[in-house]
Amino acid sequence: MFMKKLFVLTLFLLCLVAFSLPAFAAINPIQSPNAPASLPPGIAPASYLAAVKLQQDNKFNENDLKSFLHQFFAIQDRHAEVGQLQLLIADDNDLQMQLPGATVTSQKEFEKWYKGIGATYLSNIFTPEKIDIKTVSKGQYSIDAVILWQALSRDGKYSSTRQRYVFAISDGSGYWPRINALTVTEIK
User: For the chain, what percent of residues have pLDDT higher than 70?
Assistant: First the structure.
């Protein structure tokens, strides 16, 4: 008998909650800043549906790619071992980089360039100021970013410059995507 009453009470509470939720949603005074005001509550805007579709069709979404970008710069901020960065860039046959002071088309060239940076600069910090991410096609992405680069050379000279980083990125076989192309230009 107790179990039957408990079941009826539970069923009653579930129905009460189910019928009350739409009423609470209708009186919610806080509107999403991204949702068009002209749509009735509960109707997803086309921009949201397109973003969800893009996310379902690709290995990485916009937040994954932002994290990737921040990881790429964090490794360089710490002057970590070059192997940590090489995991993020494509193999030799798919690599094209225009970096400050060098054109890089292989892992070996990248290693040489990175070691040169470490020999020149004691410390540096990359601060992303603007990040624009696009899915070009399935598994292909672009990132266009404005970065404030600050550094202290080994002889004590401070440098600061804004640079535009344009990445072509593709799905990788591991945890992160891979950089296929990167062009870095100074913004004057």
Answer: 79
